[in-house]
Amino acid sequence: MEMGGTSTMGRLLHVNLTSAEFSEVRLPPEILAAYLGGKGIGARLLLDWVPEKADPLGPDNALMFLTGPLTATTAPAMRACIVTKSPLTHTFLDSYFGGYFGPEIKYAGYDGIVLTGRSPEPVYLLVDHRGPSLQPAGDLWGTGAIETGDRIRQRRKDSGIKVACIGPAGENGVLYSLVCCDTNRHAGRGGAGAVMGSKNLKAIALKGNELVGLFDPNRFLRAVAEANHEIGLSEDCRVLMEAGTASAVEFADASGLIPARNFTDGTSKLAAKLGDHGQKQKLWLSRAACFGCPIGCSQMGAVRTGKYKHFITDIVEYETAAMLGTNLEIGDPRAVAHLNRLCDDLGIDTISAGACLGFAFEGAEKGIVPTDGLALAFGNADVAAELIERIVKKEGELGALLALGVKRAAKALGGEAEAIALHVKGLEMPAWGPRGTPGMGLAYMTADRGACHQRGFPAGYEATGEAWNGKPVEALALEGKAAMVKSLQDYLAGTDCLVKCDFGAMGVTADTYARMLNAATGRSVVASFFDLLGERVWNTTRLFNLREGMTTADERLPRRFIDEPLPSGPRQGHRITESDMKYLLQDYYALRGWDEAGRPTPETLHRLGIEPGTR
Ligand code: SF4
Question: Is the domain covering 2-214 a CATH 3.40.190.10 domain?
Fold first, then answer.
């Protein structure tokens, strides 16, 4: 690290893939002051740079890899993100990734890389000591994401090159394709990989040698020590250190929130097999961590027994264990690890994949989806693997249909199919059912990228009764949930401008984030800065989504959660009614300073200082 200066690099690399031109973009100081980095800068640039109603898979869409002011410093648990217009939802999309690729963006000299246009031929972007260049990638087209990174490093004869790339799914335009960063870290949700594929961009390979400065190194080191101390004191972080997110499987099951059989139930007899204890019996694991992270929630290893023996894997984290495990009634963690690896290498989001397979299995039972000769059935891991491969190739009627996600698949099939399509705004549900936790339902309805548990997670309070703002949370109450959701969303959006990892944020306080930011950049902010920043960002993504055609009619839960009470578990009998949704939404809009159609009022935009932007 360099002494003096600031931890931001002060410029973005803009690559026009159509013309193969490179330029540096220096953002106006008032935009940097108002939006900080990561999600905030991405939201502002998306609104300003991408033309209204642009095709997400067309050359006008922008694909942005963005860091935050603490990325590549020793601040613990920092990451980077991709911001683009989602081909799955046609809304704002931010998708986060850990590993080492994010820091390398800054070592290459930039706060972010913005890609527009479309290359006439498959290429990869290389940024090294010679500067940026586009390299031919025709021979890499069709290769899996894991092999792609290895081949680029071999070709460049440099094992230290950091690579973000797509698999065949992104090339083929599967609408929930991911971007693989450093082999086992993924920007999974919302289809950023399909946007990358539409640009004929197979990969970005970085090798930087720039130094990242600090405004006040001694003050920064003291703030980092405090952040590490807070992580050490956090019970949530301790659990993640020991067991990773798979530890949540049994909690979600005991709380009645886990998806089972395409969310027809909220408990699963398979939970114990798929939790961290069950996985440790079948997988050999050792801890791994992203850049500068003392938590190390990731575990790498191999399958020890059975037909997947020797197969190298990552621990199956909670969302994947639930969506490809309990949701599909597949209880062997080795089989789920295999499906996980298949999705990662071919390049699709495991959450959306699990939802699409659940839709297909239930649809086959009901006789409302084409089977293409497959014995589609819950519990059949071999058929699940075959269907994943067909989705990636868009093979057959079913593969082509499911490559579009459940919203479009249900619309194409018509009739009863909509009742078994689990999504909000087109983004498939993550693995936390909202019945009996209305705050979680509201968080899903209003999340800017569609059904997302990372834009606010009130279920954590509703399921445990843990106090929020000094008061115990009553799970079924509607009153107060809008305020809770707004507050959680604002804070997370504010700290997503840093760009923090959600798990680090379970320990690090807002005050310490502010101290690290001030010492790294020379700013003078206090803890409440992140709430106001997040509210500004949330309203900016709202403006984008409204402009792209989203309406309040899109802010509703899937029919299953409205029509069908949970059949078992501690939340048995619960659902979220139409009147619950209406009450929650109107309360939420009023608190946000939005009109009844969910549009920010001129007073709200003025209060937040949302002004015409960067172009
Ligand atoms: S907590 Fe896990 S995902 Fe987050 S930065 Fe650390 S290792 Fe990466």
Answer: no
Q: What residue type is assigned to position 7 of the chain? A: S
How far, in Å, from the CA of 130 to the mean position of ligand 1? 32
Task: Give yes or no for residue 103 having a pLDDT over 80.
Answer: yes
Q: pLDDT tens digits, residue range 190-230?
A: 999 999 999 999 999 999 999 999 999 999 999 999 999 99
Residue whose CA lies nearest to ligand 1 atom number 8: 290
Give CATH for domain 266-421. Answer: 1.10.569.10
Name the residue type at position 309.
K
pLDDT per position as a tens digit, 468-486: 999 999 999 999 999 999 9
What's the burial of 472, exposed, middle or buried (CB within 10 Å: 0-12/13-18/19+)? exposed
Atom of ligand 1 nearest to the CA of 244: 2
Q: Tell me, in angstroms, the distance from the centre of ligand 1 to residue 395's CA.
A: 36
Cβ of 239 closer than 6 Å to ligand 1, yes or no, is: no
Please report, for residues 37, 84, 128, 234, 519, the alpha-carbon distance to residue 586 in angstroms, rounded to integers and kept in the order given: 31, 29, 51, 35, 41
Q: Residue 3's pLDDT is what?
A: 53
- The tens digit of pLDDT for each residue in 402-446 reads 999 999 999 999 999 999 999 999 999 999 999 999 999 999 999
> Could you tell me if the CB of 298 is within 6 A of ligand 1?
yes
Ligand 1 atom nearest to CA at 501: 4
Q: CA distances (Å), 578 to each of 94, 423, 463, 494, 562, in order? A: 29, 16, 22, 31, 7
Tell me if 450 sits within 8 A of 590, measured CB to CB. Answer: no
Q: Is 290 in the pocket of ligand 1 (CB under 6 A)?
A: yes
pLDDT value, residue 561? 98
Q: pLDDT of 246-275, one tens digit each?
A: 999 999 999 999 999 999 999 999 999 999
Ligand 1 proximity of 289 Cβ (cutoff 6 Å): yes
Listed by start position, the domains of the chain span 2-214, 266-421
Q: Is the CB of 293 under 6 A from ligand 1?
A: yes
Side chain identity at residue 426, one-letter code: G
User: What percent of the chain is helix, strand and coil (3-state, nearest 5)?
Assistant: 45, 15, 40
- Cβ neighbours of residue 360 under 8 Å, at least 6 residues apart? 369, 376, 387, 398, 402
Q: State whether the beta carbon of 501 lies less than 6 angstroms from ligand 1.
A: yes
| pLDDT of residue 2 exceeding 70 | no
Residues 427, 241: Cα–Cα separation, whole Å: 30
H or E segment at 133? strand 131-136
CA of 289 to the centre of ligand 1 (A): 6
Q: Is 295 in the pocket of ligand 1 (CB under 6 A)?
A: yes
Provide the token pair at 64.
């942005």
- 81, 230, 242, 290: residue to mutate for ligand 1 pocket, most atoms within 8 A of CB: 290
Ligand 1 atom with least separation from CA of 296: 7
Q: How far is it, in rounded angstroms, from Cα 67 to Cα 535?
A: 20
**Is this structure's pTM higher than 0.85?**
yes
Q: Is residue 137 lining ligand 1, measured as CB closer than 6 Å?
A: no
